[in-house]
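May I ask for a sample protein chain and its fold as C-alpha cells?
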Amino acid sequence: MDGELSNLVGRIKQFREERNWMQFHNHKDMALSISLEAAELLEHFQWKNGADVDTVATERKDEIADEMADIFLYLLELSDNMGMDLMSAANRKFEKNKLKYPADKFRGISEKYGRV
C-alpha cells in the first residue's frame, strides 16, 4: 500500500481506537456498513433518469462525495482488519477483468461476459 493510503489507514485506526469502536468493527458489520453506505449513495440517484442523473450529480456533488468517502473508509478499514493489501487485490482484479473483457470483443458492449 502506498504512503498516502497507509497514512489514511493509520488515521482510521487512531479514530477507531480513540472511541473504543474496534469491538463493533467485526468483518460482518464492516461489510454490512459498506452495503448500507452504498445504498445511501444510490439514494441520490433513485427515480432519476437521463439528464436528471447529471443534474443530481452536479447539485449534490459534496453529499455524494461524502457517501463515496464513507464507502472508501469502511473498505480500507475492513481490508486492514482482514490483513489484505487492497491495492494488490485491486491490481489483480483489474488484470483478471482485462482477460475476462478483452477490448476487441467488448468495446461498446455492456453485456456481462459469457453473453457475448
